[in-house]
């Protein structure tokens, strides 16, 4: 633990590392820091993957595990893409759209909130969030 604290102290106490209004200097050269993290997308990906794991643990369902990890991985990849470029929503939109359709159909057939209703609702919320992102006017870059 102590080596990590010392390493952190050495890195952050270095006078060549300073922050300035959206950019930072490393050894005298400026680097832009415009990346915003898609925390909602990562949370959604975690919810999907943990739902698949929970289905496997509770019922021994290997298809739940495989689908949860597949769709959770795709949702995580989509969140990563949105974090790098906020206009690149297509992987996340396709993943959440597919999950809202699949889980919505399961919820309609079973009328059970867990897990189909929860996943359908969360997926619909993600589709709505991503659709609003698409409908917003792009920001002008200078």
In brief, what are we looking at here?
Helix content is 70%, strand content 8%. With 142 residues, the protein is mainly alpha-helical. Helix 2 (39-59) packs antiparallel against helix 3 (62-84) and helix 2 (39-59) packs antiparallel against helix 5 (113-135).
Biggest sheet, spatial arrangement of strands: 1-2-3
| Mean pLDDT over the residues | 80
Please report the number of helical segments. Answer: 5
User: How many beta-strand elements?
Assistant: 3
Unreliable parts: 1-25
- Proportion of residues in extended strands: 5-15%
The largest sheet, given as strand count, sense and whether it forms a barrel, is: 3 strands, antiparallel
- Classify the secondary structure makeup into a structural class: mainly alpha
What does this structure look like?
The protein is mainly α. The chain has two domains: 31 residues, no CATH class; 96 residues. Helices cover 70% and strands 8% of the residues. Strands 1-2-3 form a three-stranded antiparallel β-sheet, with no helix packed on it.
Task: Summarize this structure as a short list of keywords or feature phrases.
142 residues; mainly alpha; 2 domains; 3-stranded antiparallel beta sheet; 5 helices; 70% helix; disordered N terminus; transmembrane
Please write out the topology.
Elements: H1 2-12, E1 17-20, E2 23-26, E3 29-32, H2 39-59, H3 62-84, H4 90-110, H5 113-135
Antiparallel strand pairs: 1-2, 2-3
């Amino acid at each position: 633990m102590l080596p990590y604290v010392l390493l952190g102290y050495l890195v952050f106490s270095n006078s060549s590392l300073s922050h300035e209004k959206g950019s930072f200097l490393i050894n005298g050269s400026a680097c832009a820091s415009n990346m915003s993290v898609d925390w909602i997308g990562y949370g959604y990906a975690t919810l999907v993957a943990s739902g698949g794991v929970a289905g496997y643990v509770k019922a021994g369902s290997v298809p739940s595990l495989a689908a949860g990890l597949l769709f959770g991985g795709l949702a995580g990849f989509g969140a990563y893409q949105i974090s790098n470029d906020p206009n690149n929503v297509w992987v996340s939109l396709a993943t959440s759209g597919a999950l809202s359709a699949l889980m919505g159909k399961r919820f309609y057939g079973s009328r059970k909130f867990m897990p189909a209703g929860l996943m359908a609702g969360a997926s619909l919320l993600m589709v709505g969030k991503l659709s609003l992102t698409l409908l917003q006017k792009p920001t002008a870059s200078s």
